[in-house]
Specification:
Number of domains of chain B: 2
Largest interface: A-B, 12 and 11 residues
Strand content of chain B: 15-25%
Oligomer: heterodimer
Structural class of chain B: alpha+beta
Number of helices of chain A: 2
Strand order of the largest sheet of chain B: 4-3-2-1-5
Largest sheet of chain A: 2 strands, antiparallel
Number of helices of chain B: 5
Low-confidence stretches of chain B: none
Shape of chain B: rod-shaped
Radius of gyration of chain B: 45 Å
Strand content of chain A: 15-25%
Mean pLDDT of chain A: 94
Helix content of chain A: 10-25%
Low-confidence stretches of chain A: none
Distance between the termini of chain A: 66 Å
Chain lengths: 89, 166
């Protein structure tokens, strides 16, 4: 049995095979939800799915695409938005 | 719509949303653009043409386009000039000093080393001081003996009580 605090299902279980042939369970906190486009709700690419303490140490350019609304809107939604803006001028 | 001098809006990539003037049409698919974006080759499908147009010739330089953009009141992308970074001065200074006058440096190095040695062996100094005191004490004892043999004991006591240096 694992330690009582680890019996909670708020912990993620990762089965790891050791060099000796055993399988052991590694407990860790669950990863946050995958980033989605705020307009069409598709999964965003180029946005890592990590806990905040890992995101802190990452460079800014590896956390989201380097374009306007990067990490918020998907590329196709942005394109539509920009076209709308251009045509309304 | 796609012609030299037409102002478009870039839809894709890092410069998305910026106004770009078509400087040259390279291909069926590609055009050279400049303006509020980095001067570069760009796919025509990644450009949304607007109603604006500027008077430029095919392949005009960045400065001309910049002037035209400023007339329209649009901002222009300017690459920052790289400044030469200086090497760390400390290392350089040390190296330079050693190269210019190595003899002086060696002297300087030796002197503090000697001082360090002196500091390192204070026990020796103490021993020397003790020896001097002992000799003085012996002389004093002899004198007292000569004067008053009865004071032998006192003298011996004094010797014991005499304060040791440091």
């Amino acid at each position: 049995m694992p330690a009582p605090r680890l019996r909670s299902r708020s912990f993620r279980r990762v089965y790891v095979k050791t060099p000796g042939g055993k399988t052991v369970i590694h407990y860790g906190r669950r990863k946050p939800k995958i980033a989605h486009c705020s307009k069409c709700r598709t999964i965003l690419k180029g946005v890592p799915r990590e806990r905040p303490y890992k995101m802190q140490n990452m460079p800014k350019s590896s956390k989201r695409p380097e374009r306007p609304y990067g990490g918020k809107l998907c590329s196709s939604c942005l394109r539509k938005l920009l076209i709308e803006k251009a045509r309304s001028q | 719509m796609i012609e030299v001098g037409r102002i478009c809006i870039k839809l894709c990539g890092r410069d998305a949303g910026g106004e770009a003037a078509i400087v040259d049409i390279l291909d069926d698919t590609y055009a050279l653009i400049d303006g509020n974006v980095r001067r570069r080759k760009c796919n025509i499908f990644h450009l949304e043409p607007t109603s604006k147009k500027i008077d430029i010739k095919k392949g005009d330089s960045h400065d001309i386009i910049k002037a035209e953009f400023e007339k329209l009141g649009l901002s222009v992308w300017d690459t920052k000039k790289k400044e030469k970074t200086q090497r760390p001065l400390k290392q350089r200074g040390k190296k330079a000093a050693s190269a210019e006058n190595p003899k002086k440096d060696t002297k300087n190095k030796k002197e503090p080393a000697k001082e360090a040695k002196k500091e390192a062996k204070p026990a020796e100094i103490k021993k020397e001081a003790k020896a001097e005191v002992k000799t003085e004490a012996k002389e004093a004892k002899q004198e007292t003996l000569q004067e008053n043999p009865s004071e032998k004991k006192r003298a011996s006591k004094k010797l014991v009580k005499e304060p040791k240096p440091e």
